[in-house]
Amino acid sequence: MSAKPWLDHRVLVTVGTGGVGKTTVGAAIGLEAARRGKRALVVTIDPARRLADALGIGELGHEPRTLPREVLRKAGIEGPGELVAMMLDTKRTFDELVSRYSPDEEALERILANPIYQNLTDALAGSREYSAMEKLHQLHSAGEYDLIVLDTPPSTHALEFLDAPRRLTGFLQSDFLKLLFRPALVMGRTGFRLFRFGSATVLRAMERLTGIGFLRTISDFLLAFESMLEGFTTRAAEIEALLRDPVCGFVLVVGPDPEQARRALDFSARLQEDGIGLMGLVMNRVRTWPGSGPVPELDEVEAKRITEWLAKELAEGNPPFDPKRTARNLVGTLTRQALLARRDAEVCAHLEKALALPPEAVRRIPLFSEDVHAPETLRRMASYLFGNAADV
Ligand SMILES: Nc1ncnc2c1ncn2[C@@H]1O[C@H](COP(=O)(O)OP(=O)(O)OP(=O)(O)O)[C@@H](O)[C@H]1O
Ligand SMILES: [Mg+2]
Fold it and tell me: What's the pTM value of the predicted model, to 2 decimals?
Protein backbone atom coordinates (compact mmCIF):
# COMPACT_ATOMS: atom_id res chain seq x y z
CA MET A 1 0.00 0.00 0.00
CA SER A 2 1.52 3.25 -1.14
CA ALA A 3 1.30 6.19 1.22
CA LYS A 4 2.35 8.59 -1.53
CA PRO A 5 -0.12 11.42 -2.19
CA TRP A 6 -2.36 10.61 -5.11
CA LEU A 7 -1.06 13.35 -7.37
CA ASP A 8 2.56 12.38 -6.82
CA HIS A 9 2.01 9.31 -8.98
CA ARG A 10 2.84 9.34 -12.65
CA VAL A 11 -0.01 7.04 -13.62
CA LEU A 12 -3.41 6.61 -12.00
CA VAL A 13 -5.88 4.03 -13.25
CA THR A 14 -9.55 4.39 -12.36
CA VAL A 15 -11.24 1.03 -12.13
CA GLY A 16 -14.60 -0.29 -11.04
CA THR A 17 -17.82 -1.77 -12.34
CA GLY A 18 -20.15 -0.14 -14.86
CA GLY A 19 -21.55 3.33 -14.26
CA VAL A 20 -20.00 3.97 -10.86
CA GLY A 21 -18.27 7.19 -11.95
CA LYS A 22 -14.82 6.06 -13.16
CA THR A 23 -14.71 8.51 -16.05
CA THR A 24 -15.97 11.44 -14.00
CA VAL A 25 -13.58 10.73 -11.14
CA GLY A 26 -10.70 10.33 -13.63
CA ALA A 27 -11.55 13.70 -15.19
CA ALA A 28 -11.77 15.33 -11.74
CA ILE A 29 -8.34 13.94 -10.80
CA GLY A 30 -6.86 15.30 -14.03
CA LEU A 31 -8.47 18.66 -13.40
CA GLU A 32 -7.02 18.89 -9.91
CA ALA A 33 -3.56 18.00 -11.20
CA ALA A 34 -3.87 20.84 -13.73
CA ARG A 35 -5.03 23.20 -10.98
CA ARG A 36 -1.83 22.38 -9.14
CA GLY A 37 0.21 23.41 -12.15
CA LYS A 38 0.81 19.96 -13.61
CA ARG A 39 0.52 18.85 -17.19
CA ALA A 40 -2.06 16.11 -16.91
CA LEU A 41 -3.52 13.73 -19.45
CA VAL A 42 -6.76 11.83 -19.10
CA VAL A 43 -7.11 8.88 -21.45
CA THR A 44 -10.42 7.18 -21.93
CA ILE A 45 -11.40 4.20 -24.03
CA ASP A 46 -15.02 4.57 -23.27
CA PRO A 47 -16.74 4.87 -26.63
CA ALA A 48 -19.67 6.63 -24.97
CA ARG A 49 -17.89 10.02 -25.07
CA ARG A 50 -18.42 10.47 -21.38
CA LEU A 51 -15.05 12.12 -20.85
CA ALA A 52 -15.77 14.90 -23.32
CA ASP A 53 -19.17 15.28 -21.71
CA ALA A 54 -17.79 15.46 -18.16
CA LEU A 55 -15.24 18.07 -19.21
CA GLY A 56 -17.89 20.06 -20.99
CA ILE A 57 -16.08 19.96 -24.33
CA GLY A 58 -17.40 18.86 -27.70
CA GLU A 59 -15.43 16.05 -29.25
CA LEU A 60 -12.50 13.90 -28.34
CA GLY A 61 -10.49 11.64 -30.59
CA HIS A 62 -7.39 9.52 -30.76
CA GLU A 63 -5.12 12.58 -30.84
CA PRO A 64 -4.55 14.26 -27.47
CA ARG A 65 -6.50 17.49 -27.17
CA THR A 66 -5.44 20.27 -24.81
CA LEU A 67 -8.38 21.84 -23.02
CA PRO A 68 -8.90 25.47 -23.93
CA ARG A 69 -8.00 28.03 -21.28
CA GLU A 70 -11.60 29.21 -20.94
CA VAL A 71 -12.74 25.71 -20.00
CA LEU A 72 -10.04 25.55 -17.33
CA ARG A 73 -11.00 29.00 -16.09
CA LYS A 74 -14.57 27.82 -15.59
CA ALA A 75 -13.12 25.17 -13.30
CA GLY A 76 -11.25 27.85 -11.37
CA ILE A 77 -7.86 27.10 -12.93
CA GLU A 78 -5.81 30.21 -13.70
CA GLY A 79 -2.25 28.90 -13.32
CA PRO A 80 0.13 27.33 -15.81
CA GLY A 81 -1.28 23.80 -15.47
CA GLU A 82 -2.62 21.98 -18.50
CA LEU A 83 -5.22 19.32 -18.99
CA VAL A 84 -5.08 17.14 -22.06
CA ALA A 85 -7.68 14.55 -22.95
CA MET A 86 -7.96 11.81 -25.51
CA MET A 87 -10.27 8.98 -26.42
CA LEU A 88 -8.26 6.00 -27.45
CA ASP A 89 -9.03 4.21 -30.70
CA THR A 90 -8.27 0.52 -30.22
CA LYS A 91 -7.79 -0.22 -33.90
CA ARG A 92 -5.38 2.65 -34.41
CA THR A 93 -3.36 1.70 -31.36
CA PHE A 94 -3.00 -1.81 -32.75
CA ASP A 95 -1.98 -0.47 -36.15
CA GLU A 96 0.64 1.74 -34.51
CA LEU A 97 1.93 -1.25 -32.60
CA VAL A 98 2.15 -3.47 -35.62
CA SER A 99 3.98 -0.83 -37.59
CA ARG A 100 6.46 -0.45 -34.73
CA TYR A 101 7.23 -4.15 -34.52
CA SER A 102 7.05 -5.26 -38.10
CA PRO A 103 10.51 -5.96 -39.46
CA ASP A 104 9.90 -4.40 -42.86
CA GLU A 105 7.38 -2.59 -44.99
CA GLU A 106 6.25 -5.76 -46.74
CA ALA A 107 5.45 -7.58 -43.49
CA LEU A 108 3.55 -4.52 -42.31
CA GLU A 109 1.43 -4.32 -45.41
CA ARG A 110 0.76 -8.04 -45.37
CA ILE A 111 -0.51 -7.97 -41.84
CA LEU A 112 -2.56 -4.81 -42.18
CA ALA A 113 -4.31 -6.30 -45.19
CA ASN A 114 -4.93 -9.64 -43.53
CA PRO A 115 -8.64 -10.20 -42.76
CA ILE A 116 -7.81 -11.96 -39.51
CA TYR A 117 -5.78 -9.03 -38.36
CA GLN A 118 -8.52 -6.67 -39.46
CA ASN A 119 -10.94 -8.50 -37.21
CA LEU A 120 -8.49 -9.17 -34.46
CA THR A 121 -9.30 -6.14 -32.38
CA ASP A 122 -12.96 -7.13 -32.29
CA ALA A 123 -12.45 -10.85 -32.06
CA LEU A 124 -9.72 -11.17 -29.50
CA ALA A 125 -11.02 -10.91 -25.98
CA GLY A 126 -9.18 -8.22 -24.09
CA SER A 127 -7.69 -6.53 -27.15
CA ARG A 128 -9.30 -3.25 -26.12
CA GLU A 129 -7.73 -3.57 -22.69
CA TYR A 130 -4.42 -4.55 -24.21
CA SER A 131 -4.31 -1.54 -26.48
CA ALA A 132 -5.12 0.74 -23.53
CA MET A 133 -2.22 -0.73 -21.61
CA GLU A 134 0.02 -0.39 -24.61
CA LYS A 135 -0.93 3.24 -25.11
CA LEU A 136 -0.40 3.91 -21.44
CA HIS A 137 3.07 2.48 -21.62
CA GLN A 138 3.85 4.49 -24.74
CA LEU A 139 2.63 7.75 -23.25
CA HIS A 140 4.38 7.12 -19.97
CA SER A 141 7.68 6.35 -21.67
CA ALA A 142 7.44 9.49 -23.79
CA GLY A 143 7.44 11.42 -20.49
CA GLU A 144 5.42 14.37 -21.80
CA TYR A 145 3.00 14.40 -18.89
CA ASP A 146 3.41 14.79 -15.13
CA LEU A 147 0.37 12.62 -14.59
CA ILE A 148 -1.56 10.24 -16.82
CA VAL A 149 -5.00 9.15 -15.69
CA LEU A 150 -6.28 6.05 -17.46
CA ASP A 151 -10.03 5.71 -17.33
CA THR A 152 -10.99 2.09 -17.91
CA PRO A 153 -14.17 0.94 -19.66
CA PRO A 154 -16.97 -0.81 -17.85
CA SER A 155 -16.30 -4.45 -17.28
CA THR A 156 -17.54 -6.91 -14.76
CA HIS A 157 -13.98 -8.01 -14.38
CA ALA A 158 -11.95 -4.85 -14.43
CA LEU A 159 -8.94 -7.06 -13.92
CA GLU A 160 -9.07 -7.93 -17.58
CA PHE A 161 -6.68 -5.04 -17.83
CA LEU A 162 -4.06 -6.73 -15.79
CA ASP A 163 -4.48 -9.98 -17.64
CA ALA A 164 -4.63 -8.45 -21.11
CA PRO A 165 -0.91 -8.35 -22.00
CA ARG A 166 -0.36 -11.87 -20.76
CA ARG A 167 -3.49 -13.12 -22.47
CA LEU A 168 -2.60 -11.66 -25.83
CA THR A 169 0.94 -12.99 -25.94
CA GLY A 170 -0.33 -16.22 -24.39
CA PHE A 171 -2.79 -16.60 -27.24
CA LEU A 172 -0.20 -15.89 -29.88
CA GLN A 173 2.20 -18.37 -28.34
CA SER A 174 -0.37 -20.94 -27.32
CA ASP A 175 0.33 -24.62 -27.74
CA PHE A 176 -2.88 -24.90 -29.66
CA LEU A 177 -1.73 -22.48 -32.31
CA LYS A 178 1.75 -23.95 -32.37
CA LEU A 179 0.40 -27.43 -32.79
CA LEU A 180 -1.81 -26.41 -35.63
CA PHE A 181 0.42 -24.06 -37.49
CA ARG A 182 4.00 -24.51 -36.41
CA PRO A 183 4.85 -26.90 -39.23
CA ALA A 184 3.62 -24.36 -41.69
CA LEU A 185 5.35 -21.53 -39.92
CA VAL A 186 8.65 -23.32 -39.72
CA MET A 187 8.66 -24.45 -43.31
CA GLY A 188 7.20 -21.30 -44.75
CA ARG A 189 4.66 -21.26 -47.50
CA THR A 190 5.75 -24.48 -49.16
CA GLY A 191 5.51 -26.26 -45.86
CA PHE A 192 2.14 -24.73 -45.34
CA ARG A 193 0.91 -26.20 -48.59
CA LEU A 194 2.08 -29.63 -47.56
CA PHE A 195 0.49 -29.21 -44.17
CA ARG A 196 -2.65 -28.06 -45.78
CA PHE A 197 -3.01 -31.27 -47.77
CA GLY A 198 -2.01 -33.36 -44.82
CA SER A 199 -4.19 -34.46 -41.98
CA ALA A 200 -5.89 -31.20 -41.04
CA THR A 201 -9.28 -32.53 -42.03
CA VAL A 202 -11.23 -30.41 -39.61
CA LEU A 203 -9.61 -27.27 -40.82
CA ARG A 204 -10.14 -28.22 -44.40
CA ALA A 205 -13.80 -28.72 -43.60
CA MET A 206 -13.83 -25.29 -42.02
CA GLU A 207 -12.23 -23.90 -45.10
CA ARG A 208 -14.96 -25.38 -47.24
CA LEU A 209 -17.56 -23.99 -44.89
CA THR A 210 -16.16 -20.52 -44.65
CA GLY A 211 -15.27 -20.19 -48.28
CA ILE A 212 -11.89 -19.65 -49.80
CA GLY A 213 -8.52 -19.30 -48.23
CA PHE A 214 -9.31 -19.76 -44.58
CA LEU A 215 -6.16 -21.69 -43.80
CA ARG A 216 -4.04 -19.54 -46.04
CA THR A 217 -5.28 -16.43 -44.24
CA ILE A 218 -4.47 -17.87 -40.85
CA SER A 219 -1.10 -19.01 -41.99
CA ASP A 220 -0.31 -15.62 -43.50
CA PHE A 221 -1.43 -13.93 -40.37
CA LEU A 222 0.70 -16.08 -38.13
CA LEU A 223 3.72 -15.86 -40.42
CA ALA A 224 3.50 -12.11 -40.33
CA PHE A 225 2.79 -11.99 -36.66
CA GLU A 226 5.56 -14.35 -35.74
CA SER A 227 8.09 -11.69 -36.66
CA MET A 228 6.49 -9.32 -34.19
CA LEU A 229 5.93 -11.74 -31.39
CA GLU A 230 9.16 -10.92 -29.66
CA GLY A 231 8.33 -7.23 -29.67
CA PHE A 232 4.89 -7.94 -28.26
CA THR A 233 6.20 -10.26 -25.58
CA THR A 234 8.87 -7.83 -24.40
CA ARG A 235 6.34 -5.05 -24.37
CA ALA A 236 3.83 -7.09 -22.37
CA ALA A 237 6.48 -7.72 -19.73
CA GLU A 238 7.28 -4.00 -19.58
CA ILE A 239 3.61 -3.13 -19.23
CA GLU A 240 3.23 -5.57 -16.37
CA ALA A 241 6.26 -4.04 -14.69
CA LEU A 242 4.80 -0.54 -15.07
CA LEU A 243 1.56 -1.60 -13.42
CA ARG A 244 3.49 -2.89 -10.44
CA ASP A 245 5.77 0.11 -10.22
CA PRO A 246 5.10 2.50 -7.30
CA VAL A 247 4.68 5.35 -9.82
CA CYS A 248 1.41 3.71 -10.82
CA GLY A 249 -1.66 3.68 -8.57
CA PHE A 250 -5.07 2.04 -8.87
CA VAL A 251 -8.11 3.98 -7.75
CA LEU A 252 -11.17 1.84 -7.20
CA VAL A 253 -14.44 3.68 -7.67
CA VAL A 254 -17.47 2.15 -6.05
CA GLY A 255 -21.07 3.05 -5.35
CA PRO A 256 -22.37 2.68 -1.80
CA ASP A 257 -24.39 -0.44 -2.26
CA PRO A 258 -23.74 -3.84 -0.71
CA GLU A 259 -23.38 -5.69 -4.01
CA GLN A 260 -20.82 -3.20 -5.27
CA ALA A 261 -18.99 -3.35 -1.97
CA ARG A 262 -18.75 -7.12 -2.31
CA ARG A 263 -17.35 -6.82 -5.82
CA ALA A 264 -14.88 -4.20 -4.63
CA LEU A 265 -13.56 -6.65 -2.07
CA ASP A 266 -13.14 -9.35 -4.73
CA PHE A 267 -11.40 -6.87 -6.93
CA SER A 268 -8.97 -5.79 -4.26
CA ALA A 269 -8.19 -9.42 -3.41
CA ARG A 270 -7.42 -10.16 -7.06
CA LEU A 271 -5.18 -7.12 -7.28
CA GLN A 272 -3.29 -8.31 -4.27
CA GLU A 273 -2.89 -11.79 -5.72
CA ASP A 274 -1.27 -10.07 -8.67
CA GLY A 275 1.09 -8.22 -6.40
CA ILE A 276 -0.60 -4.87 -6.88
CA GLY A 277 -1.85 -2.74 -4.02
CA LEU A 278 -4.94 -0.63 -4.23
CA MET A 279 -3.87 2.98 -3.86
CA GLY A 280 -7.21 4.60 -3.29
CA LEU A 281 -10.89 4.00 -2.84
CA VAL A 282 -13.49 6.49 -3.99
CA MET A 283 -16.96 5.97 -2.72
CA ASN A 284 -19.09 7.88 -5.13
CA ARG A 285 -22.71 9.01 -5.07
CA VAL A 286 -22.92 8.67 -1.32
CA ARG A 287 -26.22 9.89 0.04
CA THR A 288 -25.53 12.21 2.89
CA TRP A 289 -27.24 14.16 5.59
CA PRO A 290 -26.96 17.92 5.10
CA GLY A 291 -24.37 19.65 7.27
CA SER A 292 -21.57 18.03 9.16
CA GLY A 293 -23.37 16.60 12.20
CA PRO A 294 -24.38 12.98 12.74
CA VAL A 295 -27.36 11.54 10.91
CA PRO A 296 -30.35 11.78 13.26
CA GLU A 297 -32.18 8.66 14.36
CA LEU A 298 -35.82 9.44 13.62
CA ASP A 299 -38.08 6.77 15.05
CA GLU A 300 -41.84 6.87 14.54
CA VAL A 301 -42.58 8.62 17.83
CA GLU A 302 -39.94 11.28 17.20
CA ALA A 303 -41.10 11.78 13.60
CA LYS A 304 -44.70 12.22 14.78
CA ARG A 305 -43.63 14.76 17.41
CA ILE A 306 -41.66 16.81 14.87
CA THR A 307 -44.50 16.62 12.34
CA GLU A 308 -46.99 18.02 14.85
CA TRP A 309 -44.65 20.78 15.92
CA LEU A 310 -43.83 21.72 12.32
CA ALA A 311 -47.50 21.71 11.27
CA LYS A 312 -48.26 24.13 14.11
CA GLU A 313 -45.38 26.43 13.16
CA LEU A 314 -46.38 26.41 9.50
CA ALA A 315 -50.05 27.08 10.31
CA GLU A 316 -49.09 30.26 12.18
CA GLY A 317 -47.85 31.82 8.96
CA ASN A 318 -51.25 31.26 7.30
CA PRO A 319 -49.62 29.52 4.31
CA PRO A 320 -51.44 28.93 1.00
CA PHE A 321 -50.97 25.15 1.46
CA ASP A 322 -52.16 22.50 3.87
CA PRO A 323 -49.72 22.80 6.83
CA LYS A 324 -50.42 19.32 8.21
CA ARG A 325 -49.93 17.53 4.93
CA THR A 326 -46.84 19.58 4.09
CA ALA A 327 -45.31 18.90 7.50
CA ARG A 328 -45.98 15.16 7.06
CA ASN A 329 -44.38 15.13 3.59
CA LEU A 330 -41.36 17.10 4.74
CA VAL A 331 -40.68 14.93 7.76
CA GLY A 332 -41.29 11.82 5.65
CA THR A 333 -38.69 12.99 3.13
CA LEU A 334 -36.18 13.77 5.87
CA THR A 335 -36.74 10.40 7.53
CA ARG A 336 -36.07 8.62 4.25
CA GLN A 337 -32.96 10.71 3.59
CA ALA A 338 -31.68 9.92 7.11
CA LEU A 339 -32.26 6.23 6.50
CA LEU A 340 -30.41 6.26 3.16
CA ALA A 341 -27.57 8.34 4.58
CA ARG A 342 -27.19 5.92 7.49
CA ARG A 343 -27.27 2.93 5.18
CA ASP A 344 -24.67 4.39 2.82
CA ALA A 345 -22.45 5.37 5.75
CA GLU A 346 -22.64 1.77 7.03
CA VAL A 347 -21.70 0.29 3.66
CA CYS A 348 -18.81 2.75 3.33
CA ALA A 349 -17.55 2.04 6.84
CA HIS A 350 -17.77 -1.70 6.25
CA LEU A 351 -15.84 -1.45 3.00
CA GLU A 352 -13.17 0.80 4.49
CA LYS A 353 -12.67 -1.59 7.34
CA ALA A 354 -12.64 -4.71 5.17
CA LEU A 355 -10.13 -3.22 2.76
CA ALA A 356 -8.00 -2.01 5.66
CA LEU A 357 -6.98 1.11 3.80
CA PRO A 358 -5.51 4.05 5.69
CA PRO A 359 -7.96 6.97 6.03
CA GLU A 360 -6.06 9.14 3.54
CA ALA A 361 -6.61 6.51 0.85
CA VAL A 362 -10.37 6.74 1.10
CA ARG A 363 -12.51 9.51 -0.38
CA ARG A 364 -16.25 9.98 -0.37
CA ILE A 365 -18.16 11.99 -2.92
CA PRO A 366 -21.81 12.80 -2.31
CA LEU A 367 -24.56 12.20 -4.82
CA PHE A 368 -24.93 15.51 -6.61
CA SER A 369 -28.37 16.71 -7.57
CA GLU A 370 -27.32 16.70 -11.22
CA ASP A 371 -25.08 14.78 -13.61
CA VAL A 372 -21.51 15.95 -13.98
CA HIS A 373 -21.11 17.56 -17.39
CA ALA A 374 -19.44 20.88 -16.83
CA PRO A 375 -16.04 21.95 -15.54
CA GLU A 376 -17.70 23.70 -12.58
CA THR A 377 -19.30 20.48 -11.29
CA LEU A 378 -16.14 18.58 -11.98
CA ARG A 379 -14.27 21.11 -9.88
CA ARG A 380 -16.76 20.45 -7.10
CA MET A 381 -16.09 16.75 -7.37
CA ALA A 382 -12.33 17.43 -7.24
CA SER A 383 -12.79 19.40 -4.04
CA TYR A 384 -14.31 16.31 -2.42
CA LEU A 385 -11.42 14.24 -3.68
CA PHE A 386 -8.64 16.60 -2.69
CA GLY A 387 -10.11 19.28 -0.48
CA ASN A 388 -12.01 19.32 2.78
CA ALA A 389 -14.11 16.22 2.52
CA ALA A 390 -15.12 16.37 6.17
CA ASP A 391 -18.77 17.08 5.45
CA VAL A 392 -19.31 13.84 3.56
N1 LIG B 1 -21.31 12.11 -7.49
C2 LIG B 1 -22.15 12.12 -8.52
N3 LIG B 1 -23.37 12.70 -8.40
C4 LIG B 1 -24.23 12.71 -9.43
N5 LIG B 1 -23.99 12.15 -10.62
C6 LIG B 1 -22.80 11.55 -10.79
C7 LIG B 1 -21.82 11.49 -9.76
N8 LIG B 1 -20.74 10.82 -10.24
C9 LIG B 1 -21.03 10.47 -11.50
N10 LIG B 1 -22.27 10.90 -11.85
C11 LIG B 1 -22.97 10.68 -13.11
O12 LIG B 1 -23.13 9.30 -13.27
C13 LIG B 1 -23.05 8.92 -14.62
C14 LIG B 1 -22.01 7.82 -14.79
O15 LIG B 1 -20.72 8.36 -14.51
P16 LIG B 1 -19.44 7.88 -15.32
O17 LIG B 1 -19.71 7.92 -16.78
O18 LIG B 1 -18.29 8.66 -14.82
O19 LIG B 1 -19.36 6.38 -14.82
P20 LIG B 1 -18.40 5.24 -15.37
O21 LIG B 1 -18.06 4.37 -14.23
O22 LIG B 1 -17.28 5.83 -16.12
O23 LIG B 1 -19.38 4.50 -16.34
P24 LIG B 1 -18.98 3.37 -17.41
O25 LIG B 1 -18.73 2.14 -16.61
O26 LIG B 1 -20.19 3.29 -18.28
O27 LIG B 1 -17.75 3.85 -18.14
C28 LIG B 1 -22.74 10.19 -15.38
O29 LIG B 1 -23.92 10.68 -15.94
C30 LIG B 1 -22.21 11.13 -14.32
O31 LIG B 1 -22.49 12.49 -14.64
MG1 LIG C 1 -16.61 5.47 -18.11
Answer: 0.83
